[in-house]
Amino acid sequence: MTTTTKIVTSRAPVKEVIKDASMVKQKEMMAAHYDRLTSAPEAGHKVAATFVPGNLNELIMCFDLLNNLPEVNAIQNGLRRLSGSYVLEAEKIGHSEDVCTYVKSDIGMMAKGNIAPNGKKFPDPDVLLLSYTGCFTFMKWFELLREQYKCETIMLHTPYMGDGKITKNMIDYMVKQLKEDVIPTLERVSGVKFDIDRLREHLKKSTKAEDDLVRVLQSAKAKPAPIDAYFGGIYYIGPIFGAFRGTQDAIDYYRFLREEVEDRLAKGQGPVTPDGDMGKEKYRLVVEGPPNYTSFRQFWKMFYDEGAVVVASSYTKVGGVYDFGFRHDPSKPLETLAEYCLGVYTNRSLPMRIDMLVNYINEYEADGLLINSIKSCNSFSAGQLLMMREVEKRTGKPAAFVESDLVDPRYFSAANIKNRLESYFQMIDQKRAGANAAA
Amino acid sequence: MATSLNPSATADIVARANALFEDLSFASARKWKAAELGRKVVGYMPIYVPREIIHAAGMLPLGIVGGGDQLEVIHGDAYYQSYICRIPRSTIELGVSGRLDFVDGMLFPSICDVIRNLSGMWKLMFPQVYSHYFDVPQNYRDDIGGNFYVNELEELRHDLGELRGKPITDDELRHSIAVYNENRKLVRELYDFRAERPWQAPAAEVYLIVRAGLLLPVEEHSVLLRDYLAATRADERPMRDNCRVVLTGMFCEQPPLNLIKSLELSGCYVVDDDLLLITRWLTGDVAIDGDPLRNLSNAFLHHSESTAAKYEPNQKEKGQHLVRAVKRTAAEGVIFAAPSFCDPALLERPMLQHVLKEAGIPYIAFKYAENSGQMQPIREQAGTFADSIKLWSGA
User: Fold this and answer.
1) Nearest residue to B175 via CA among B58, B302, B77
2) Interior angle at CA B295, CA B289 and CA B297, nearest 5
3) What mean pLDDT do residues B164-177 have?
4) Looking at the whole model, is its pTM more than 0.90?
5) Where are the alpha helices (DSSP H) in B212-270?
6) Quick check: helix, strand or coil at residue B330?
7) Which of residues 215-234 of B touch A (CB under 8 A)?
8) Gap between the terminal Cα atoms of chain A
9) Labelling A2: which of A79, A132, B43, B346 has CA 20 to 30 A away?
10) Residue A307, exposed/middle/buried by CB under 10 A (0-12, 13-18, 19+)?
11) Can you give the pLDDT at residue B5?
């Protein structure tokens, strides 16, 4: 089932945006969470701020804490076209133009009243759970927030998988941090005693939702793909990467989503785009890197207008990689949290990331790789040009490179990106024509 | 203890260090390797690796800190977008141009995402070379971060033992720790001397002398340090009416030598800095007796420098190392000089500036790249800063 939402802006006429029922449900879940967050002080709830990669939602819930994710807030501000002014505000108060715009959007938002997407003020966090996973900037980000909020800050250091493997030393280190630092501090801040069985229950729920998410993502192996695994995928990952992993709500949402996608699959339908059902699938792409959020819909339109669907993406693995078999395992609750953190996409070495992208191109029978390189995200971006060459070499499929930013509108050049995409689609056509002629 | 057989005058010593600095073919390290069959060289990037383990394996630790302003980057730029700092692209240039073809291993320490990802790039581009991302703990408890770190050190010790074909013994490690303790002591002595009499040890000279330690065998570098200290103490030089500043933010990508010279020419004596931090990362002697890896770990956890790549668990301690450096060296201000697009330095900067503001310490800030050519704006900025300190400090 699809829904039509009327978008009214001051400059543009009324525009109808088509959404899957699951997208509407997702939006309702996110809105409900923001309401819970902004009413936390009155309701007597405490708040833990933490990051999407290495998000320990199951653990946080064991202490009755609400999860607030600053990257998700920055994304919301990007989609609402607020982030540009927040970034400028942060630069005005001394933050460099060179650094991560998620950080600056967050700091600018704080400077301008810390207003949540529902129009109400965010509560100050009671604890900053610095899950230092796959991104150097996280460490500085929470040091900056700690300076502002002067609240308890917990560092959970996730070692990097530089040699492409998880070692016993890494797991032992993380489990010990959880046992002797993270959990005792969360107990102290929340006043709630840790109950490992409660954690197991949340983890069981995580596993169920993860199973359904993987089935949804892997549905894009079909031709035509019933989903867009990048633009649409961003909606799909919202609950599980955010405040819902380990909840019944997440189980219900992912079951609902899977059924919706299976229905489309059975009917041979392609993805739903903001302009309705996508036309004929002409190009199947794998995308590496985050999207631009300030012109999200315009960016997406450049794809679906050309019949391009993203069948797999690395960005939808940034809060957890589940499609190669990992599931949260309630039988070893702390170890499984460690394995989860260690395995997130940006904590993987470059050779591992290349292996994943090559696997996607082969498994999803994609026409090639597109990299959206993000100006302010070195964790993703440094090395992407080599990744592009390696993937081309190993798959024989063409690759292309566009540049933008997460939430800084100054770095989104629509004409430039559109030009490059059109050239890329032509390149794929030529490659196909060459292959057909050879056959 | 090695002693100088042929003490040189200051100019000769500095000229030797400068020749090492300018030599992008790493001739001295090549010569060291060629002198004996089976010798190996292991490169490392900023900020810190335990060079004692490389040394204990009988190998030469070689500091790779980019290509500077004399290297024409032809291939390296093709690997990076315009918004990535300069050091990885010039390091790749050094690699693909064959300048590092004698290097048997490369260590990429945990400092930022760019160097982290470079570790994977090196594995792909130079598969014949041992490449290793060297992780360090961000938890400073001996039984948590310490245990993790000791195991990481053990892994490095094992790998380098494999590389040379023979395990590294505890006694070899103890010997190397003692050799590096001596070297660090001399570097500290040089820094203390400069803080006391900066006109006798200009920042550019100190930089060259310390940087030679990234290229020479440590024993030879200690001789060089001793010779320089002796020579420059004996060499009376005029004191200028400069102000005294601490330089911060230059711990990874190196500034052009001209930039360091320009700061002094514009009226700022550099009395402390975070350049080439590896040479004094451990702030005291590492214990010799007992388990050598545990001793290295203890030194890292409890007696190492503060910098942006390290988590500071205590909010009250944040930035205090800079305040202490200012007090210790009787500095009058701080210059924040960060490489463009350097996440650690630039994200850290506002927090440090808040601390300095609270402590009433004046500061200025600018950015550079290792190949920056135009020094006039920096001279003007530093000159104005020096003037303002002289005119208004203590008013």
Assistant:
1) B58
2) 175
3) 98
4) yes
5) 218-234, 257-265
6) coil
7) none
8) 42
9) A79
10) middle
11) 40
